[in-house]
Amino acid sequence: MQGKLFLLSATWNAPEESFNNAKQPLWKGKSADDALFNIGANYSFIGYTVLPGYFCYDVFHNRHIKEDLENYPKYLKNVFGL
């Protein structure tokens, strides 16, 4: 699997401010990528290059679905250098 890329995309009902914030009691400063580390680690173990994930936050309360969908292609272009 050497040379293959892995990108994780997930939705969270938690607001973005819940991550990367040491004052938050649940994640304690961890990022969304950190929260899903075990998944990326499996791919890394078998030779994939793990890319930074794309995450949509607070999907039930502050519905930014349109913006999230519009930003996804931009994110992919940035990550893959297209």
What's the short story on this structure?
35% of the residues lie in helices and 12% in strands. It is α/β, with parallel strands linked by helices and 82 residues long.
Number of DSSP strands? 4
Number of helices: 3
The total domain count is 1
Strand order of the largest sheet: 1-3
Alpha-beta content class: alpha/beta
Proportion of beta-strand residues: 5-15%
What is the overall silhouette? flat
Largest sheet entry: 2 strands, parallel
| Weakly predicted, low-confidence segments | none
Mean pLDDT over all positions: 92
- Helix/strand order: EEHHEEH
Question: Span from first to last CA?
Answer: 23 Å
Radius of gyration (CA) equals 14 Å
Measured as a percent range, the helix fraction is: 25-40%
Protein described:
The protein has 3 helices and 4 strands. The protein is of the alpha/beta class. It has one domain (5-73). The radius of gyration is 14 Å and the shape is flat.
Topology, please?
Layout: E1 5-6, E2 9-11, H1 32-35, H2 37-45, E3 49-50, E4 54-56, H3 65-80
Parallel strand pairs: 1-3, 2-4
Keywords:
about 80 residues, two-stranded parallel sheet, two-stranded parallel ribbon, 4 strands
